[in-house]
Specification:
alpha+beta, seven-stranded mixed β-sheet, 4 helices
């Protein structure tokens, strides 16, 4: 995605690469790509917070919501939201909430996709909702494995916010490997366009959170 859109990408699973703000300030955005559980040590937590406070960009994808459960600041970075559970991996219809933002521009009003549709506790607050899932289109319903009944008519899957001096764009979508590879999957083109817009706006290359 970076090569096709003229931005460089460094990828790592080594937490020491996030050990200081000076390392992170070389980048326009930090992306958590399906991270999980207690990902960061103390130096990395401090560096990420200082990076965001210094005007950095953050993108959280899918299980970024299953990360750093006990860190209140990070929960705020996710929009004051967190993962609770999800129903079965199943097809559904994503509803685009307007086309002003760069991450929703050009997307149809409704598009089909398959994912784990995350239920959220806490629910996102003081954010701009960019996309949600129409729960009525889920053949096996929204009820999660831990009993969450879903969010009814307002079940967000992507949103953005300015947070603590920086920019945060997040989506609960992105579970399927096929969504990221050349293997065809219904709606994957729309999904990747959505994520690309989120990344470019979080980097500051495009207007953010319109």
């Amino acid at each position: 995605m970076g090569a096709e859109n003229n931005f460089a990408v460094d990828w790592t699973e080594d937490v020491t690469q996030l050990s200081s703000p000076s390392r992170l300030f070389r980048y326009n955005a930090v992306i958590f790509m399906s991270t999980t559980r207690d990902t960061l040590d103390d130096p990395a937590q401090t560096a990420l917070r200082q990076y965001i406070r210094g005007g950095g960009g953050f993108v959280g994808i899918h299980n970024a919501f299953g990360t750093e459960y006990n860190w209140e600041w990070y929960e705020g970075l996710l929009g004051g939201a967190n993962y609770y559970d999800h129903g079965r991996n199943q097809p559904g219809t994503v509803v685009t909430m307007g086309g002003r933002d760069v991450s929703t521009a050009g997307l149809p009003a409704r598009w089909d996709f398959t994912d784990e549709w995350y239920n959220l506790v806490p629910f996102p607050s003081r954010v701009r909702i960019l996309a949600k899932v129409d729960e009525s289109t889920l053949p096996e319903g929204p009820t999660g494995g831990s009993g969450h009944p879903g969010h009814g008519r307002n079940h967000p899957v992507s949103w953005c916010q300015y947070y603590d001096g920086g920019r945060s764009w997040v989506t609960t979508l992105g579970h399927a490997v096929e969504a990221w590879t050349d293997t065809p999957m219904t709606g994957d083109g729309y999904f990747l366009r959505h994520v690309l817009g989120g990344i470019e706006s979080a980097m500051g290359h495009s207007p953010f959170c319109q």
